[in-house]
Amino acid sequence: MSERENVIDLNSDLGEGFGAWSMGDDDALLDIITSANIACGFHAGDPAIMRRTCDRAVSRSVTIGAHISYQDLAGFGRRALAVEAARLRDETLYQIGALDGIARAAGGRVRYVKPHGALYHSGSSDAEVATAIVTAMSEFDAGLGLLGPLDSELEAAAGRAGIAFYGEGFADRAYTPESRLVARSAEGAVLAESAAVAQALAIAQSGTVTAVSGVAVPVRAQSICVHGDSPGAVAMARSVRAAMQDAGIALAAFA
Fold it and tell me: What does this protein do (predicted)?
């Protein structure tokens, strides 16, 4: 079970369209999740999409988080870029500030930060990247929370800076024996609905998942991500939510 006994958060990555192009059914997901990781324009999203997503999140009392990324629209933020620490700090600050301004206009505010894609993985393993992210958060608002993998450089950097850190698990992604996500390019990296529901329950109830090797590995989490761009994402998210409720697990935002 998570550290909040019988309580878990469900999050999803939203606002990931650009211009006339859209991704996922954000409206449907906002009726299911409790926290929304909203793209800030660097891997996806633009001012109009950010405003629309914030408006809808606020209207449903869904907590808003800044889904920060490397500046990589062409690669959807999934390419690890060589960015010096000071620039990454400033780009992170820029993204948080932009989304927070729009969120406040919509009647809400940014309450946490979650790195996207390659930045999530780089921040998890690279202390310099993690420190740049956390420094930007501290400079903007030290009361922000950071969502990411436990036992990572992100968690360590947050601890040094006094930033609240929240562990994240993934319903629909396979795990390695090291409790890390299997690369999206690998076969079986994205789980089918039934497996995702079972994995989400395991994370919430026991803090473990069955890795691709077949062994149980720890994944302690206060929040579980259901990806909005996975096949059948909305149906999967509904099934995960229903399974949590059937198991007596309350759903509430962590931040």
Answer: Catalyzes the cleavage of 5-oxoproline to form L-glutamate coupled to the hydrolysis of ATP to ADP and inorganic phosphate.
